[in-house]
Every structure is written in structure tokens, then in C-alpha cells.
Amino acid sequence: MSAERKKSLITTINNQRKYSQVAKAAVLSSAMLARKNSSSRGAPGSAATFGARESIAAISDMLSTQHKKPVRSSYVESDRVEWALKIACTISMITVCLHTPRTIELFPPLTYIILAADFISVSIFMLDSVLRIHYEGIFRCDSSYLSNRWSQFSVFISIIHLLSFLLHCYQLIDKFFPFLQLNYRTWYGVIRSIRPFIIIRLIPLIVKFKLPKNRIEQLLKRSSQQVKNVTLFFVFFMTLYAIFGIQLFGRMDYHCVQPKTDPNNVTIMDLAIPDTMCAPEGIGGYECPAPMVCMQLNLNAKGEGFYGMFNDFGASVFTVYLAASEEGWVYVLYDCMDSLPSYLAFLYFCTLIFFLAWLVKNVFIAVITETFAEIRVQFSEMWQKKEVTLDEGFRKKLEKTDDGWRLIRLDGEVEAEGPKQKLQWMLRSMYFQCFVIIFVVLNAIGNAMFVYRHDETDVLRKHNFYLFEVGFTILFNVECIIKILCYGFRNFIRRGIFKFELILCLGSSLNCVKFFYDRNYFTYFQTFRLLRLIKASPILEDFVWKIFSPGKKLGGLVIFTIAFICCCSAISLQLFYSVPNLHHFRTFPQAFMSMFQIITQEGWTDFVVEVLRATDDNLVPFVALYFVAYHLFVTLIVLSLFVAVILDNLEMDEELKKVKQLKAREATTSMRSTLPWRLRVFEKFPTRPQMAVMRKADSDFPMPKVRGSFTHQFAVDHSLETTDVLDSDFEFPKRLMRSANKRKISKHGLTFRQVGSTSLRCSLNNLLEMSDRTRQSLSNSLSFLPHFTRSSGSLYPRKDALPKSRSMTGKFLQTAVRNKQFNMYSENGDLSRPSDSAPKKNAKQGEIDIRALQQKRQLAEITRNRIEEDMRENHPFFDRPLFLVGRASQLREFCKKLVHSKYDSQDDGINGGGKTKKRFKEIRALIGIMPYIDWAMATVTIVSCISMLFESPWPTTGENLVMNNGYLQIGDYFFVLAMTFELCVKIIANGLFFTPKAVVRDVGGVMNLFIYFTSVIFLAWMPKHVEINSLAQFLMICRAMRPLRIYTLVPHIRRVVLEFFRGFKEIVLVTILMIVVMFIFASFGVQIVGGKLAACNDPTISSRDNCTGVFWQKLFVTRLEVYGKDTEAMHPKIMVPRVWTNPRNFNFDHVGNAMLALFETLSFKGWNVIRDILWNRHGPWAVVFIHIYVFIGCMIGLTLFVGVVIANYTQNRGTALLTVDQRSGTT
């Protein structure tokens, strides 16, 4: 683009900014006038007053976001003071994370560095407070310093910092001058646990809100109210199940022990291996095998472990909450089943998991999602720039060219001349892009082929792989250098993707240095180069860009989550570092890993129980409350925020939604105008309309052949109540004419009308009028459709103008006609006119006429009905079940009534009365969702599945197998017979495949036939012996698909399944993205810990040469804290051989095993085991990558699946295109 054009564009922008002030003034004056008029017309609290308040709030919002430079009121508001406070807050946060005895023990000079840094931060805080008090006063007026809550909080934090600094000085004085006998205690440092809240003071210094204060308060009040309501809902169920637990289970302290065990002094030698709970005789629980006895043990709360106790209300609430987190609840379930009758524990815990773990958690996600959507609309200016500049805002401009509308870049890829122009053409070409993608794929294949075999060949393969990576690094560096030479460094560095490639090239180049390569310092850059695999698929690239391009939202949430974890880790560090026998909070990295583990919920119950056992008895309730509150916030609020942000990224802009709403109508219009492919097959055959011959006894001239449907209008059979014109058998007119003489003598004979010139004209007019009435009443067409007769425009149609079929008689037909007639009216009660639906000629630019689109939709639907009627008229085998059953045969009509008959739960008061009140409306509505035959088949299927539950391979004699038990075969015979009857009736009524409502018209119909034929074959065969991987076993597996029939029978369940599979494309994209992420981290794991995790199962042996012989291995006995559990001599052991091997359930010897291990961690299961082994065998540096992977793969990747499913569900529901205001209006 030329320089003159850029200058003109900048001039236009400046002019627009000048006119914006005038526009704001006009809006202000109009809003004031609206407020005046509303106040004069409406009373306080009316809708007019509410609208005025909204307009004033919008004006204040507009004025608050004006682009004007704020005026500094005093020296305390200067930029230097703000930067000094930011530095002081950061220093304070760093020093409080480092101030632990273990950290100072590792690096003793750190204590003086912390003291100096604390002195600087405390000085800044105190100086800021003194200056503000001096300028604003303390209690002088309402605007004094201490009248503001933020100022009160600042003073409080400053005092805490001062006390912490004095406490540190007190500690050093006691250390260097012990003769003073100051007696410093380590638990004095608990006062430093308040210092991490300094991050709250740092937030307003970094994040600037542009909305007015009242609007922010309104949003926070509304969102907090919704969260409060859901929290009360959660607390209600917690309290309810806690009370139920006390009443049902109470104290469960019966264990299987040795006969002579002292219940007050239990040792580990007295317990069973493993420890098992029991019930006294007669209660119905587990009975101990001889010679063990069931005895009640006297253990305290620490001995029992807190989790699984229902002794009192507090312990019961704690147990219920931990079980609701779905971590370790099965062990409590088994303990309750052993202590009491199993059905009590089964019902209690199944309903607990359903309500607390599933229902309440999803309600939290829904509430947070909707709240975040409202906040996003109000705070949208925080994520998009209001200051428009040429370099940042106008990177692209939409211009109309000869080829159409195109996006023109204003600042990048400037056209060059000479050799650079050829380079630019080469870089932009598809061949070069494919060339780069091929090399990225080859690099990924090379990483996947590397494997460790734990022998002498590993060294040679490692060296060859090093040369392989050096070659690819040189290749990608050459690509980066060519791009820099082509575009210039300034234009190159502006592009985000080029920045990413440059960082990867620099890091990969450093990784090629042998010193860094052996220590894996820069391996991240080498493995993350595989992220360029995403560009191999444009669809996947667009999807990833859609999710992660709004970096301020997702990136801000990631920063908030990490900052919150760091703050809570620092608090926990200062609270628990002095607790004896507790190693989780010795240093900040250990505290961070512990608090991060609670977010993932993997093993967090064991961690909390260990902390509670190490804590003083008086502080146990407060410590439990602290960890429960942290877990509640991070799992229900923070994780729900991730889902909300991802859903918000998947959503479209508010203005784009309005356009998409109209485009969606157009797409629906185009789809409804065609028939399914299984019906379009009749278009390949020549048309054969059925003709009828009219014979007249008193005439010698032959009558010409006419269409059977036309002839049918002039023949009335009194034996039938009505005549179905549109749905008649193609042979019926011929058969009717030939048998006319015979049927005259019957009771209900056939009558012919005399056809003359007048009667012929009248019959044709009646026929055309009948067509108009039928289209207006039975279709979704509007009244603006063309009419064929003069009298067809009357408001009320005649009774004989609507032909009734055998399937549409009585109340159903009258209701359908009445509903269709009501649709012909507009909202004000007038009849719809063509002028109301005609396209607008004076439509504004960018406005799409909704009425025109509605007209197209109706016409498309009529077109589809016309095509179907033409096929029914011209193709004799169309809409004939199995090509044998007639269209209007009595057998088919009877089967239709049998298939489609169902309970009508709607009573609209047809005979002039109002709607009658019925009892049990919910039950009646439930019965009316399916026809009677589907209800019968659903019942038969459920009974058959219940019968299958009693099948068991035990005992091995086979008496509980279906082929050897006649009682179990009854369910199969009953199911096959019932399904045979169902399929026969439905096929006769609706057809098998080539009919509009065929039985096999989707995947559900194919699945029904598959289930039926496999059941029939297995029942006819009934093999007595089933081999592994045999046909008989395959048929038995197919029998297990029988419950899927419920999905095809129940319409609501079928709709949910269809909506899920409609989003299959997005689910596949998320799956591919997760596979790429797993492959990247698996490659990294292979390079840093591959071949290095093998160790001896005897922890006392460190070398492979000495890992021989046998040793005594401890056995797991109990979770109770009993005497002898930690004693080497008393703990039960077993002698096992020493083996040098990888960890039991994972290794990183090649990419396949590494991806399997990382896939397991996606479910938050087993990742802490990987973390502990990596920490013990390779130090803290090897642990970093597993935390990054869990954060990216689990907290972001898995929420992507949730977000995609929710977004797809709302899209199929029709609410995805609704704006936030429209969505709140519909609710």
C-alpha cells in the first residue's frame, strides 16, 4: 500500500475521533430527554424508570471509557510511587516464599539477603502509608485515608510486614547472642503466613478497570449471588448426607484381629493382612474367617485416619466432602459394606456421588459459564484495544477489488523488488509450505523411532540421534534466516508465528551444544518444534487459533491460577514448615507441588490425612477447614473458569451472532428443499403415472385415459368415511372401475357424478380450491402463496375443502387444522399479507430481511412436499412397504394405527371450553413421549437386560450361563419374539428402506436390525461351549449391545446422542490436538529420562551389578496408625528376589510407552507417582515437565472436550447463536 493511502487513512481516523465527541454529546442529550419523559409518564419502580436507569448506566459506562489522560491529584499518585509499590510487592512475595529454615539451611547467606529485601519493601510500604496519611488525613473527613477499605487493608499488610521484619531481627539476635536467652521458637513465623496476601494489593496496581464503580459492584453482586445460591445448594446436600451417615453408619470400629488382642493397645501384628472391617454376628456385614475374631477397637481420630468416620457431625461432613471429590470414596464404601448390610452403603454412596460429585459440580460449571459471559460483555474493552493506531489496530483492512472483497495488510509483507521478490514468492508458495511440513513430520518420525534397550547399544543410538537433531536444527535455522532476509528483521519480528519460530531456532541451537544437550537444559525448544505439525491441517490450525488466539483471556486465567497457587503455597509454607514429621512444606517447591496436587485431586485425601495426623489435636478442625476451602475453590471455581473461558473463546462475537442467525436460516432453507438420497433413487427411473379408463354404458365413443388421482375426485365410495387423495393405492382406481357393476348391489354402492360443462367447471374449481386449502392448512406455508381460484382467499375454509386420510381423523385432524390456521395470523391478529413478507426495498446496508428468509424457508418446504407428491404420483412403487403392501391397504392402515398410537397428554379444550385440569401432569406427559408399542419394547428390553445380569461364569460348571439355564433363556425368547412382532408391524406401516418414514433411515435403524439378527442367530444356535475369539463369543458380545435399544426408542435420549455425534468434527480436532501435545511431551520425556528410570526394587541397592539375591519386602497391612507400623522388626515382610527393572506401571524408553504413561495422567490418575519417582531418581528439574503437561493437558485439554460438547449442544439446541441479552431474555 502506498504512503499517500496510509496518510489518508490516518486522517480519516482522526476525523472520526473528532466526530465521536459530538456523537457522545448527542447520545447524552437524547438519554436525558428519555429520562425526563419516562419520569413524567411512569411511576417509580416502573419499566420506564428501569429503562432510564439502564440508559444512564450506559452513558456513565461510555464516559468512563473516554480516551483522556487522567490527571494526577498529588505526588502520592505519581508513576514512580506506583512502580515502587509494584517492586515492593514483588520483593515481599519472593522473600516470603524463601524464608524457611530448610531453604536457609541449603544456602545460609540467604537469610541476610531476605533481611535486606524485607527492609526495602517494609520501608516502601511504610513510606507510602505515611505520605498518604499526611496528604489525606486519618479521620479528618469522609475522604480520609482510613475511611477507604483498600487503605485499611494496606495499613494492615504494612504492619504485618513490619512485625515480620522485627521477628526476623529477633531471630538473628537470638542466634548471635544466645546469652540473652530470648528463646526464639520456629512457630513464631506463623505471622508471616499473612504476608502472601500482598498479592491482593498488587492486583489493582496492574489491572486497571475502566468501568464505573457502580457497574463493577453490580456485576460482582450479581455473580456472587449466583455462586452463593449454588454454594447453599451444595451445603444443603452436604448437611443432608452427613446426617444420613451418622444415622446409618455411626462408629465403625470393628476389625478382624487375633483372639487375644487388647482393644486399647493394638499392634500391627494383631491385624489381618490386609486389615479388614467386620460386623458382629447377626448384623449382616463381613464375618471374619477363623481363627480371627471381630472386635471393637478403641482408637482415636488420628489412629483411624479421619477419612471414613461418621462418629459425629464434623467428622461426617469431612468424610462426605472427601467422598464427593471422587477420590478414595470406594474404600469408604467397602468399609461400610463390611460393617453393615451392603445395600445401605450401596444406595448411600451411589446417590452421594450422583448429587454431590456430578450434579452440583456441573451446576457450578453452568453458573460460572453464564456469569463469565455476562462479565465478558461488560468488560469487553479489557480484552480489545480502544486506542486505535496504525501499527496495532489497522493491521488489515477490508477493501473491494476486481476479484471481490479482500483483506489488505497495511504493515507486513511489503512487496520487494529484485531477488527478494522471488524469495517472497517462494516463501508464500504452497510447495514451500508443504516442504517445511514434510520436514517437521520427518523430525517427528525420527523422535518416535528412538528407543532405549538398556544395553551397550544405547550410547551409539543416542549419538546418532544427536546428529539427527543437529541436522534438522540447521535446516530450520536456514529457513528462519531466509525469512529474515526476505522480510527484514523489523517486519519479521512483528508476526507472532515468526517470533515463535525464532525462539525455537535460538533454543534448539543452544541445545546442539554438547554440554547443554547432555544436561537437557534446552530440550524444550527442540521438542516444541513439533507444534508446527498443527499447520499440517488447516482445519486444525483454524481451530487452535480460535481457542488460543484471545490470549488475554486464557493467558490471564493461567496467570491468575498460577498466582493463586503460589499465594496459597506461600501461606501453607509459613503455616506448616515448623510442624514435625511433615516433609511436604519444607521448601517452596515442595509446598507448590502439594497445593498443585490438591487441584488435580489425585491422592489429595491421603495428603490431607497425613497433614492432619501431624497437626496438633486442637488445630485439626481449622487445618481441615483450610484445605477443604482451598479444594472447594480450586476445583469448583477455578476449573469452572477454564471451561467458561474456553466456551467464551468458542463463542462468536455478539454482532456476528446476529448475522449467523440469519445465515443459519438460509442454510436450513437450502437443506429442506431436497429429499434423502434413499428417496432420490426413484428419480433415476422413468415416470409411470397410473392411468384409469372411464367407461360409460350409453356411449359408443371411447373415453381417454386420465390420471387415477384426478379420476378419484369424481368417484365417491360410501363405504369409506373419507377419501385420501394424496395417499392412495395406484391400483385402486382401476380395481374400483372394474368392480363398479358388482358393487352397485352392495349396501354401500359406488356413485358416479354426471359430468357436463357446468359440473365439470365446478368440479375443477372445487379441486383447485381444495389444493389451496390443503396447502394452507396442512403445510407450514404462509398465506402469501399464490391461489388458483377466486374464492380461495376467504378466511374460513369449507369443511369439504380438506381431504382427510384414514390416519388423520377426529380430534387430531381438527387440532392440526386449527393450529395451522392460527399460524396464518400475525402478532396483532391480522391475517398475514404478501406485503408483510415481501423483501424490503429500502433495507439498510448490512441489514438482512428476516421476512424474506422466512418466505424462502416456507417455499423450500413446499417444494420438498411437492417433489414427494410428484414421486408418489409418478412412481407406482414409491411409498410402498417392501414394494408389495399397498399405500392405502387396510393392513397398512391398521399397522399405522398400531405403531403411531400413543397417549395424548395435551387437552386444548376443543368443544369451546377451557383446558381441563388433570392430575399427575408429569406422569401423563412422560407416558405421551412415546407410542405404546415403543413403551412395550422398552419394557421388554429392560426385562431382558435384567435377565442377562444373572448370567455368570461362576461356578465353572456353567449352571449360570444362558445356554445351560432354561430360566435365563426365557428373557431371550421373549425379547426375540417381541422384537419380531415390532419390526414386522413397523415395516408394514412405514416400510423398510425406500419409504419416507422407513425403519432403516439412520444409524439407529441399522443398529436395531443388527441387534435383532445377532439375537436370533444366537438363540437359534445356542452353543453349549464357547471358545475364546470364536464366533459364539462374538455373538455373546453382540448380545451385550441390547441395552442400546433404549437409545433408539426413547426420543429424548436419542436426541442427546445425536447432538453429541453432530459435534464429532470438533471432538476429533480436540483429540488430534491432545495427541500432538502428548507426542511432544512424550518426546521430551524420552530425551530427558529415557533409559534412566530403571532401578533395583531393593531401595538399599543403587548399582545394577549388586542387584542380585533376595531381600525382605514390607507388606501393606492397614491405613490405621497402630504401634509397630513404622518399626522394621515388627512390620510383616515377605522375601522377594532383587530385580533391576523400570517402574511397575510406566517408563519412557520409547515414545509409545511414554504416550501411554502420559495418557494415564490425563485422567489425573498416577501422575503423582511419576512425579515422585522422577524427583527421587533425577531431581527437581525432571519434575517440571510433568507439572507443565498436567496443567496444559488436563486443566486445559480436558476442559476443551467439555467446552466443545457444551458448545455443540447449545448449537444444536439453537441457543449457540443467541446473544447474552437474548439468552437472558429467554430464561
TrEMBL record:
Which is a Pfam family this sequence falls into?
Ion_trans
Q: Which residue spans adopt a coiled-coil conformation according to this UniProt entry?
A: none
Q: Where is the Ion transport domain?
A: 82-377, 430-654, 931-1211
Q: Which UniProt keywords apply?
A: Membrane, Transmembrane, Transmembrane helix
Q: Which InterPro entries match?
A: Ion_trans_dom, NALCN, Volt_channel_dom_sf
Q: Where does the record say this protein resides? A: Membrane
Q: Where is this region: Disordered?
A: 826-850
Span-the-membrane segments of this chain are 110-131, 152-173, 193-209, 230-250, 340-360, 430-453, 465-489, 554-577, 623-647, 925-950, 970-993, 1005-1022, 1067-1089, 1181-1207
Name one molecular function that GO assigns to this entry.
Answer: monoatomic cation channel activity
* Swiss-Prot/TrEMBL GO biological process terms: positive regulation of synaptic transmission, cholinergic; positive regulation of synaptic transmission, GABAergic
Membrane topology summary: Multi-pass membrane protein
The terms describing its cellular component in GO are: plasma membrane
Name-wise, this protein is Ion transport domain-containing protein
